Amino acid sequence: MIKILFLLVIFSIPVSWVHADNQKVAIASAHPLATAAGFEIIAKGGNVYDAAVAVSAALAVVEPFGSGLGGGAYWLLHREKDKLDVVIDGREKAPLAADKDMYLDKNGKVIPKLSLDGALAAAIPGMPAGLVHLSEKYGRLTLADNLAPAVRYAKTGFAIGDRYLRNLKVRVDTIKQYPETARIYLNKEQNLPELYSILRQPDLADTLINIAQHGRDGFYKGEVADKLVTSVAKAGGIWTQADLDAYQVIERNPVVGNYKGIKVTSVPPSSSGGIALIETLNILAAYDLQALPKLTRKHLIVEAMRRAYHDRSLYLGDGDFISIPVERLLNMDYAAGLRSAIRFDKALSSDQLSGQIESQHQGTNTTHFSIIDQEGNRVAATLSINFIFGSAFVASGTGVVLNDEMDDFDSQPGAMNVYGLVGGIANAIAPSKRMLSSMTPTFLETDKEVAVLGTPGGSRIISMVLLAALNFAEGKGPETWVNLPRFHHQFMPDVIEYEPAALSEDEINTLKQMGHQLKEVPRPYGDMQAVLLNKHAKFLSAASDKRGEGTAQVSQ
Ligand code: GLY
Question: DSSP 3-state assignment of 30?
């Protein structure tokens, strides 16, 4: 019965809703209820930015393992009437009391899990400030309207599915250490709840209502802020009211590239995503990839990824704290220099790339959604609390799972993090600094079409968006990009990771002979959400990665 109710909720999303000004809209998100929240707001007369607030907030409720009010996000917007392209950087910031050695023992060694689990792992959230900013500056409806679907989902609850339980299982032992988190997400016996049981989050509903009523002060000041600061301090964290007062989202200019006539618009630092994506495309731009044998094509893509991820590790961090050579990294001549050292017949081992390499971090649990209307107004948003269920710590009485985004900093130069990424001092911890991200919400645009896309996946986000962009360049549609078998190289570790369908037996053997190391990934990775507008026909399409449980729909 519960399963039937679950399916009824999931599949009864009205698709007849259109924009108030009769524009159709396409929405793809990682959860059916989040997509439904977006359409509900469109039906109320909201624009795509209102819908983006509703989808972001709904994801915070229905995917508490992936993103939420205790985390951060990047919203990449385009407004057609004035051709505005802007990124709202709602990335978390290190607390004012943070120190570069805060996760090291007295011998300078990283203390395992300190930057991953519990209150000390949590950075100051940017998501609530981002939602308020997006709604008030770009939306048509009130913040309360836009948060209403999320409030409802939190209050009345929703049936948890397989994916939710799989994620909970990964973190269940850690969650058991935090009574407030266990109280919300585990059953009375401290075990996993039943499949399709109803998850209600009344405290989270109250926090959302507070934000709906008081804007940013509903989270960063007053009752909720007190609870956050007190709980974090009690659990060994270092947040103060001054941290919450100081948090601001930043509007940034996107980074822009051009790959064979496709305008590529993506996020600048504090994410590495846009620069690494465009640099990789620049390296590949001189090859006629489609004319090359498949194996050569994959080898060249891997070699380009290797070089861009190497630069990521050397140069990228929070541009408000360090100087980043953005122009050089995005320069075509620079890319040509990197390309000139690529051999068609042989892999370059990563340790032959120059430069002092230091450690860098990246979490995997994140979410993405894409929205576009027939005019071309659009939002690509990637949202995260870092690892699955973030720090696994919920501040008492708030229902807010705090992120463990501090793990995306380099705790210790020279070491490799839990996800295998290495980085440089550019991404060392400092008070108020944003930790480097790989989130890559992106627009791809030609005279004819505009695509909006992105995915979760930690360090692999950039290579997934890259493969999708190359597929777009070949004229394929969103259904193909989101479901492509994937392969990935991130400079260190020096290995091609691949989903089974991405490489044939012959390709694997030949790549090995060329000097590549390979590792099959045990599980599929990514959860790409993409929408596409054909500008001439005003035709919309949308696709949601079959690896996930999301829904992609176009209003009719
Ligand atoms: N925490 C994942 C990222 O920012 O890329």
Answer: coil
What is the model's pLDDT at position 425?
A: 81
Amino acid at 164: Y
What digits encode the pLDDT tens for the residues 146-191?
A: 999 999 999 999 999 999 999 999 999 999 999 999 999 999 999 9
Tell me the per-residue pLDDT of 201-245, one tens digit each, with 9 for 90 and over. 999 999 999 999 999 999 999 999 999 999 999 999 999 999 999
Question: Which domains, from first to last, does the chain contain?
Answer: 2-251+367-427 (no CATH), 253-363+439-538 (1.10.246.130)
Structure tokens at 455: 């995915």
pTM of the model: 0.95
CA distance 433 to 166: 33
Q: Which residues are catalytic?
A: 366
Mean pLDDT of the chain: 93
Rounded to whole angstroms, the maximal C-alpha distance in the chain is 64
Name residues contacting ligand 1 (CB within 6 A).
362-363, 366, 384, 386, 405, 408, 437-439, 458
User: Measured between alpha carbons, how far is 258 from 239 in angstroms, rounded to an integer?
Assistant: 42
Distance 113 CA to ligand 1 centre (A): 17
Nearest alpha carbon, ligand 1 atom 3 = 437
Q: What local confidence, expressed as pLDDT, does residue 108 receive?
A: 87
Distance of CA 372 from the midpoint of ligand 1 (Å)? 24
Best mutation site among 387, 461, 465 for ligand 1 pocket (most ligand atoms within 8 Å of CB): 461
